[in-house]
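Human:
I keep going back and forth on a fold encoding question. Comparing notes only helps if you start from a blank page. Show me how you would write down a chain together with its backbone fold. Write it directly below this note and I will take it from there.

Assistant:
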Amino acid sequence: MPLAIFFTIFTMTLLGVWAIERAESEARRADLEQLAVEASAALERRANANAAYLRSGAALFATQDNVAPSMFQTFIGQLRLDSNFRGADGIGWAARVDGADIPEFEQAMEESGATDFKVEPLPRADQVYAVPVTNLQPETARNRLAIGYNMFSEGVRRSAMIEAEETARPTASGKVVLKQEAGTEASGFLVYMPVFTAGEGNTRELRGFIYSPFNAQDFVDSALQGLENRPVQLAIYDEVVAPDRLMASRVTGEPGGESVVKRVEIANREWVMVLQSLQPAALSRLSLIALIAGLVCSTLALAIAWLLTRQAVEARQVIELLEEQAAIRNSLTRELNHRVKNTLANVLSIVSLTRRRADSIESFAESLDGRIRALSATHDLLTQSEWGTTPVRSVIEVEMAPYAQGRDAVVEMDGPHVELAPNDALSMGLAIHELATNAAKYGALSTAEGKVEVLWELVSDDLVRVRWRESGGPEVQQERKRGFGTDLIEKIVAHELRNPVELMFEPSGVRCTMLIPVRSPGEFMLRAKRMQQRMERARNTPED
């Protein structure tokens, strides 16, 4: 029960912690989605601002017969590009040049001041024209690296220019490495706006492209200014999420929490933005507090329940002990009543037989006194063993002690260790007393040369044979009056032992053989053991 209470409370605590962590996760996801909306809006604003510049330039150049370098520089100067154009490498002009006109175009560019202008690489046989970078402002050493580069020769740029020509709107290219990066692997992209002139029959002809090259990482960083300190990891991919399509990223910690995917349109091209929250702690502060509080409460409940359960168990043990003690008292009372009745019956038999054989009051009193004392001695011996089993040797020694002390007669006792039940020990004690009394008066114990041997042996596991043999005493008279001792041994003792007693009065001395049952420890032993265990439990039971 205490463990059940503990696990119940602790399980409820874990459910509470799980609910708190789930709410925290949902809150992080909501915050991440809000951040994704803000970031995508910032990127789209920056791309739209650049597209507006390109549209205005395309509108201006479409009205001119020729886009001269001086006019392009004047146009860029009048735009007064502000902070909305940060992240780009500038604005450039790339003219459409037919393959046959490239030498003439290169000469015209040198005449206009572009030293060593070359279109590289030249268009392939299957390409009708080239789109070389004609002008790129601001004019820096970095931007001059791109002058003359035929952007139509590269597949990613060519696809973006073709789509821009077809849609007549600003179009971003896929992931490229800008010529300005000078051999690095930095990701970049370009936004193209086609410039058309009117042709014959209400048609339009492509004159070239006004465009902007971007370093992708610089573009993203400039667009997301103000969001740098947000604890998230950001990654932007070109159209699909793949390692080779990564455009830009920002890492501020170890990722591992919730993630949100947001699609962003940058100049008619789709980017995929992946935001991932940082690895959260194992448990939030609120969850940790709830877990500790739940653990304390469950432990306290466990302790209280354990104490109450222990008190209940101890109370039940006390009740059981009292019940057992009452049962023991009842059993002891019944057994005592039974033993008292048996003892009184033995006393009455002894009194009756002694009275019949007595010649005078003195002989009657003397005989009765000795036999009662024999019963008393055996009772004392049984009491010392708590009415359990009693050794054969102990019974014989107790009964022979009054006759052997202070005499010259020899009493020899020998045999294995054998335990007798209480009633059988009483019966054997009476028989030994009668034999010893008779030997002291008339037999071997009445003379100094006399000798008494009491020998016993196990006949089987449940039967012991006790032999009494006298020698060296007066000759036993064969013609004699039958006495009380003979009747006691052959009738009362034989009846109690449930085996015949062989008593012989030979001239050399009295012989007696008794067969006594060796009972397995019965109720008297079981009761004693249970009583001892209960008393030990009672002593070990803590008091209130």
Remarks:
- The first strand starts at residue 91 and ends at 95.
- Residues 2-278 form a domain with the Beta-Lactamase fold (CATH 3.30.450.350).
- Residues 29 and 258 are 6 Å apart (CA to CA).
